[in-house]
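Record 1 of the preview.
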Amino acid sequence: MSSQPRILLLYTGGTIGMVNNPATGALMPFNFEHMASQVPELQKLGVDLHAITFNPIIDSSDMRPEYWIKMAQIIYDNYEKYDGFVVLQGTDTMAYSASAMSFILQHLSKPIVFTGSQLPIGTIRTDGKENLITSIEIAADQKNGKAIVPEVSVYFENQLFRGNRTTKHNAEYFYAFRSDNYPALAEAGIDIHYHHNAILPISSQKKPTFHKTFDQSIAMLRLFPGITKQVVEQICNMDGLKGLVLQSYGSGNVMTDKWFTDVMKHTVNNGVYVLNVTQCRAGGVKMGKYESSKGLIDAGVWSGYDMSLEAAITKLMYVLGKNMNRDEASACFKKSLSGEINTNLIMEE
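->
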């Protein structure tokens, strides 16, 4: 039996897995079962590497909860066979997938590293090789026989971020992701430098807790100067709506027009869970700090604190999927399940 760390690579689709067809010159999916031919450096890592490819592969723009559950099921079924997992997907919705995975599989003792690339792995200047190699190394890294990063993360362009703190911010350059509200978990240079104080503690559970149900009956309302009552009402009164992510200004502020808080109160009274997050990339919601947000508190809107939009959307789907009553849901949004919230902000309320 091999003493090398066993790593499972899950390719769902995306730019990283594309190579040029020598006959046509067009991009085609790469067979990850023959990784050594495209990335011979993998043989020097000292890991026992295996791969599973989605069939069919998915464009990241087509990502949805059923695929998150499919990814999680594969990881869960293989959890005891491998020391770590690397998930490859397109970058456009990677932050959503990583956020969702942190709620689907909780209490981890092994790494789940998401990565991808801006250029196909078969191109000369690809960022894919370095992202892939380092992600595998991070997934395999252990100290005293235990995983160094036992959580869901995103690795891209020399930095490892907590998955549910990550946002894609650049569609052109290799540094495609940022984590404005939480420090990097690791940085890769000549060596990989881990910031151990930023990493979640390892779980004592043999296998993670698997939450399989997400409810997609949600909408997002992003405010802008001049938004009309008609638009807000159309969104808030949609048939079947159960949850609403409100993207407000600054630290959670909204217009002071009475009609707006009236609509929010009516929405909450109709049983819709409304979560307030900021439009800003950094910082968070502090409801009640300014007069313009106090009406939301009275209306029953909940603070999303410093959650990213991706974490807020996926956590709301998770909460609705658990069929929590209002008190249970409120309590859930006031605690950090997988490191998605700065708990100091909760205590400051």
